[in-house]
Fold this sequence. Notes:
Chain A has 350 residues and is an alpha+beta fold. Chain A has two domains: 6-131, Thermophilic metalloprotease-like; 135-176 and 191-346, no CATH class. Chain A has ten helices and 20 strands. Chain A has helices spanning 6-20, 39-51, 68-71, 77-82, 101-107, 123-131, 135-151, 244-256, 281-284, 338-346, and strands at 28-34, 55-61, 88-91, 114-117, 154-158, 164-168, 176-177, 187-188, 193-196, 204-209, 212-214, 222-223, 228-233, 236-242, 264-270, 290-296, 312-317, 321-324, 327-331, 334-335. In chain A, helix 1 crosses helix 2 (39-51) and helix 7 (135-151) packs antiparallel against helix 10. The radius of gyration of chain A is 20 Å and the shape is globular. At the A-B interface, strand 1, strand 2 and helix 4 of A face strand 1, strand 2 and helix 4 of B. Strand 2 of chain A pairs antiparallel with strand 2 of chain B.
Amino acid sequence: MPYTQDLELAVTAYKIVRDLCAVKKGETLLITIDSAGYWPVAEETAKAGEALGAKVMVAWHTTPPGYGRAGDPYLPDCLHAAIPNTDVWVEYNYQWLLYGRAWEEALGVPKRVRYLFLGGLSIDQIIRTVGKVDLTLQEEFQNTLVEMTAKARKMRITTPAGTDVTFENVPGRPINSEGWTTKAGVITFLLGQIGWAPKEDSINGTIVFDGSFSGGGEAEIGKLREPIYLSIEKGRIKNISGGAEADFVKGWIERLGDPKMYDIAHVCYGFNPGARLSGLCTEDERVWGSTEWGFGNQGPNYHGTRGAAVTHFDGTCLNSSVWLDDEQIMDCGKLLHPKLADLAHRMGKQ
Amino acid sequence: MPYTQDLELAVTAYKIVRDLCAVKKGETLLITIDSAGYWPVAEETAKAGEALGAKVMVAWHTTPPGYGRAGDPYLPDCLHAAIPNTDVWVEYNYQWLLYGRAWEEALGVPKRVRYLFLGGLSIDQIIRTVGKVDLTLQEEFQNTLVEMTAKARKMRITTPAGTDVTFENVPGRPVTNEGWARTPGPHFLLGQIGWAPREESINGKVVLDGSFSGGGEADLGVLRHPITFHIESGKWVEITGAEEADFLKRWFNRLNDPRMHNVAHVCYGFNPGARLSGLCTEDERVWGSTEWGFGYQGPFFQGNAGPAVTHVDGICLNSSVWLDDEQIMDCGKLLHPKLADLAHRMGKQ
């Protein structure tokens, strides 16, 4: 008996398996989902894999009490053993396996596994952010923007809420474009995020979070009621101000007691046409026309200079305006660059 | 929204995890089920494991086109990797992983994994053959019968359909007692007790009137006409009966393996919920039946018949059994006082 949006979910699952993961006949496809996750997503993905001739296994398992390494002691051994032994791994876990021991074994040094992280997304969210997306246009949009950004030396980002920040890019540092995992060892995330680490000591100005804030645990604030203002000098937070949420964040960072938590780790564009501000970081940081700033731990995939910190937090700035060198390519979330504007129009976004 | 027998299934799952597998807090519990299996059984078993504090994983996967090694090339690698890395493995697969490569790795030499095979059973079957069974009485019944059988030197089995066979037991050969997976190694559905008699001592007629299972085209299921195997010194020398017997003779001839004539084992069937269904796992446990296996003799029987190209099983209903000079059962009805009392309390007579 079908439930609401079951056909949409089937289409979504098929796109995930065929288009995002390029699963081929005879390959092993592992789908992991904990008991807090949304089972129908895993079930439909398995069906799509089976239809494409893959050897499919869904591992449905105990939900650990935390993400990544925090969850490791609570997971079944057989799950750990399964994870490195697959060609494709799609993760739908609510309490992510991402960055845990089994993940490290499978992906720390990329070998066989192609990994797509879609953890924590509800059925509705995954339909909106994958199923309804025109993947051809999305890929062209992301590739175009990645190419342009990689060429830009100086950038400026502003928002109506008061963000006004400038920085320089470092030639050669990777610009991660999320969505597809078609080669062995490629780690990817939900469509519509493009992220990189600017030259850290070149970042100056004001960042105003007016979308949502995600720091994990008690700092998983979700949608913000009032903006949080961050004064930035040479890639570091000098001051945090705003309302009650700003005060909480300020105190929380102080309690962490790690000066590296004030460091900017990365900046990202959000360009998933289906993403809405929901309070789930994975979706919020992809809201169309937003920018997102990450602080604290800087992943090695950014090739930056900041490195490890005790944890990491992200905040979202809505309706951004972006300048690449002297060219403004977006104004308050609306694309100005002709090619990007045309693609955005065809994607139904403007 | 619950389906029919959902509460019964929950009870069954809890008994499997707590009583049959003795799952303890912190242990890893792996449940495997292919897409041809009955998913709710796996789901409820996972819930029971979780409630008992186990680290639970259900592997729901592609159904291979055959059993055991025949299925190996069609299975996901991650399934193979998972199987040896668990404390308890409950198998609900329709196309069994039993005797496949991953099974061999986990259980060829039992180390860590306690394995309970419940493959191919429908929801109704598993409720009848596990959920509704009084496990305390069942264990006492099985233990009593195992002990008595292990002591018997000479045996005779007859049935109303014409079975009349005698044989000797070999002291020290194991009498397997299925149902509980409390120790590392392979374990099977409740209510089967099996052993290999002294092969050359087996003589007489075995008349199969329940069902016959030979795999593939020789999975005859419930028989329309009896099939008589004429046994001399532990080998069948003739098969007689109607068209099913004729089919089997041709089928054995095509196999062209003289070891397929060997008697591999005999078993008692004593699962109070089993009914003749055509599924070998259930049929060979029908209360008061005996079952004979021919061909491949599993190493755990510690017999001297050894391997063969394949293995077949047939069921003789309503058996009468003599241990040395004592008749303990008459046409499926227990005569031995302790067994008869237990059978009565189990609702069987």
